[in-house]
TrEMBL record, chain A:
Residues 282-376 form the Pyruvate:ferredoxin oxidoreductase core domain. Pfam families: PFOR_II, POR_N. Keywords: Membrane, Oxidoreductase, Pyruvate, Transmembrane, Transmembrane helix. This is Pyruvate flavodoxin/ferredoxin oxidoreductase domain protein. Gene3D superfamilies: 3.40.50.920, 3.40.50.970. The lineage of its organism: Bacteria, Pseudomonadati, Thermodesulfobacteriota, Desulfovibrionia, Desulfovibrionales. GO terms for molecular function: oxidoreductase activity. The chain crosses the membrane at residues 12-35.
Automatic annotation (TrEMBL), chain B:
It comes from the Bacteria. Coiled coil: none annotated. Pfam families: TPP_enzyme_C. The keyword Thylakoid does not apply. This is Thiamine pyrophosphate TPP-binding domain-containing protein. Transmembrane segments: none annotated. Keywords: Oxidoreductase. GO terms for biological process: cellular respiration; small molecule metabolic process.
């Protein structure tokens, strides 16, 4: 047997943004539509060069972000794994179509490389200002999966994860990266696709006449045939019945909405991803995500050297909020610190879960500057 | 069974909860008929057709026909259609939009779809008004017309959809009317068959919202207005300028045979991929 692992593996000295593309291609992405915006543009530029070189690959630069997400939804309905990338202002423009994708259960990935804001704000400075926009930016009630990445390797891995969740749960998945992670160049090993578990949406096994496009199933996720495969059905953003036709019947509305929530709720243990560092005996907990988690990691080492029992909970999934892990940490620690490059978009979630058990302190920075290890260390050491 | 009944049985969705939403006499129903006759006449398989619609009365057409149908967000039908066509160029992608949908909120997408010549057929059902939201003005409401939001008469000029689309670079630009049905069938069939971006502006009256406020109280008033206003393009061009006033030319306004964007992209891929596979053409897997 030839060793495919070796053959397909390669080492790269890549930007976070470039690693996103590697991850997407490993996951099987064959369609990209987007509109340039700093600090996400490299994702689009590399896609433009790579996609026409693969069978079935298609890339298109659209006239704006509304159009980009529209095209991505169309391509996904036609059976492709599809993605787009943007930054805050572009992400805002995508919100209506994001709601459409939630409602019609279209798998896709949106990477948002956050920049400082509000408005056009700080295009080239790091920030984590879109956390709540990712959760609540579109209209109406809906669950959503929001992931984050803190280094270049993770940009690749979490992009794969984003596609996997999108396909498994038939839902849009948002990957939040900050400018530091996106524009850091690091050496990473890119294994061949066989090194990863890759999920594909399920395809109906019944004959077309029996197919119900929005039927409830054990997992709450219905199979999804591509347009043109014989399973003709109606896709609409209007509240629909199991056949996909608009409905105003309270019973049908209720069962659709409940299923949308349940297909995510039921699988919290699968979706909520975290990484713990020196938390076993921790008395002071730090909860961080994105590039800030790297500063926090160093701060923990600094603190341990000085005898402080500090530990880090790094959030890789931001939503659904990993409350079980936060709750556990809160019970263990006399104090929790949440550093983030915004005014407290994640710490309010932490407080919601942990403030009854322990005290929660925040470090907030919105001046376009990085949160340093010593800044976090200082907070750990000031009892 | 009559031919018409047979067509209805074959192409309309029986599991859909009829009745439809259109007012009696609405032009949109006639467009629906024309669409079905055209697809039937071209001998297309149902699975090869994808109908993408915007939001508005016009957008509801999608729900009634037994094709792959996508009822998108307001103004964005062409963006979805672009993604579908790029992902699977084998599909005949037909976008159905209202005038508000295509030229007000979606105006940017329309000129870009025309410019990039994506292989999509756009049917714009122009009723000069926002039907579904209760009769507000749109980008095609004629100057002076009364609507819910122009109670003192529309002051702004309106778009000429044909001129605009032609200038933006579409392969095919056509205008028809729901009164001139045989011609409409021909225009729609041609637009569906041809490569690249093809648009048919279809004058489709809304007596409920537009007519009521602008001296065409009944559907019949609107249709007789169409009968007297629309003239074939050739005839229109032969008319004296003073006679052209109040007339609307219908027919073919542009026809080029440039390859659609999706075809150019497939060519690029063939030149770049070392071993093009079957899948290159877009199997839609
Ligand atoms: C983003 C957004 N804005 C506004 C609306 C409300 N809306 C629904 S249909 C419509 C206008 C429809 O007019 P047109 O496209 O001309 O189609 P018609 O109903 O006349 O066929 C509007 C404004 C919406 N659904 N979405
Ligand atoms: S409101 Fe106007 S456009 Fe809408 S269905 Fe009635 S007649 Fe047709």
């Amino acid at each position: 047997m030839p060793n495919h692992k070796k053959k397909n593996a390669k080492a790269l000295f890549a930007l976070g943004n470039e690693a996103v593309v590697e991850g997407a291609l490993i996951a099987g992405c064959t369609f990209y539509a987007g509109y340039p915006i700093t600090p996400s543009s490299e994702i689009m530029e590399v896609m433009a060069a790579r996609l026409p070189r693969i069978p079935d690959g298609a890339f298109i630069q659209m006239e704006d972000e509304i159009a980009s997400l529209g095209a991505v939804i169309g391509a996904s309905l036609a059976g492709r794994k599809a993605m787009t990338a943007t930054s805050g202002p572009g992400f805002s423009l995508m919100q209506e179509n994001l709601g459409f994708a939630c409602m019609t259960e279209v798998p896709l990935v949106i990477v948002n490389v956050m920049r400082g804001g509000p408005s056009t704000g700080l295009p080239t400075s790091p920030a984590q200002g879109d956390v709540q926009q990712a959760r609540w930016g579109t209209h109406g009630d809906h669950p959503i999966i929001v992931l984050s990445a803190s280094d270049v390797k993770e940009c690749m891995e979490m992009t794969i994860q984003a596609f996997n969740f999108a396909e498994k749960y038939r839902t849009p998945v948002i990957l939040l990266i900050d400018e530091i992670t996106a524009h850091t160049r690091e050496r990473i090993d890119v294994p061949g696709p066989e090194a990863f578990e890759i999920f594909n949406r399920s395809y109906p096994s019944v004959p077309p006449e029996w197919y119900k496009p929005y039927e409830d199933t054990m997992r709450g996720v219905s199979p999804m045939p591509p347009i043109g495969s014989g399973y003709r059905h109606h896709v609409t953003g209007l509240t629909h019945d199991v056949m996909g036709f608009p409905t105003q019947q309270p019973e049908e509305i209720k069962s659709l909405m409940e299923r949308l929530f349940r297909k995510i709720d039921q699988f919290f243990p699968d979706i909520m991803l975290v990484e713990e560092y020196r938390t076993e005996d921790a008395e002071i907990g730090v909860i961080a995500y994105g590039s800030v988690a790297r500063s926090a990691h160093l701060a923990i080492d600094m603190a341990r050297e000085q005898g402080y029992k500090a530990g880090l909970l790094k959030l890789k999934t931001l939503f659904p909020f990993p409350k079980t892990y936060v709750d556990k940490l809160a019970h263990r620690c006399s104090r929790i610190i949440v550093p983030e490059m915004n005014m407290g978009q994640m710490s309010r979630e932490v407080k919601r879960v942990a403030s009854k058990t322990t005290s929660v302190r925040t470090i907030n920075r919105i001046d376009g500057q990085i949160i340093t290890p010593s800044q976090i260390y200082k907070s750990i050491s000031q009892g | 069974m009559s031919d018409v009944t047979e067509l209805i049985h074959h192409y309309l969705r029986h599991n859909k909860k009829f009745p439809h939403v259109f007012c009696a006499g609405c032009g949109h129903g006639i467009v629906l008929g024309s669409l079905i006759r055209s697809i039937h006449g071209l001998g297309l398989e149902k699975d090869d057709v994808c109908i993408v619609a915007g939001i508005g009365c016009s957008g509801r057409i999608a729900a009634y026909v037994d094709f792959n149908t996508v009822h998108t967000t307001h103004g964005r039908a062409l963006t979805f259609a672009t993604g579908i066509k790029m992902a699977n160029p084998k599909l005949k992608v037909i976008a159905i939009m209202g005038d508000g949908d295509a030229f007000s909120i979606g105006g940017n997408h329309l000129i870009h779809a025309a410019r990039r010549n994506i292989g999509v057929t756009a049917l714009v059902l122009n009723n000069y008004i926002y039907g579904m939201t209760g009769g507000q003005c749109s980008a095609t409401t004629p100057q002076g017309a009364n609507t819910q939001t122009t109670p003192f008469g529309q002051m702004e000029k309106s778009f000429d959809l044909v001129d605009l689309t032609r200038a933006a670079g579409a392969n095919g630009v056509y205008r028809g009317s729901v009164f001139h049905v045989n011609m409409l069938d021909r225009l729609v069939s041609t637009a569906i068959e041809r490569p690249g971006f093809n648009l048919v502006e279809i004058i489709s009256p809304c007596h409920t919202q537009y007519g009521r406020k602008n001296k065409y109280k009944t559907a019949v008033d609107m249709y007789s207005w169409l009968k007297h206003t629309c003239v074939k393009r050739e005839k229109y061009e032969a008319m004296k300028p003073e006679d052209r006033k109040d007339k609307l030319p219908i027919g073919t306004f542009a026809e080029h045979d440039t390859k659609g964007l999706e075809e150019l992209y497939a060519d690029l891929r063939t030149s770049l991929c070392p071993q093009p596979t079957e899948a290159v053409e877009g199997s839609g897997k």
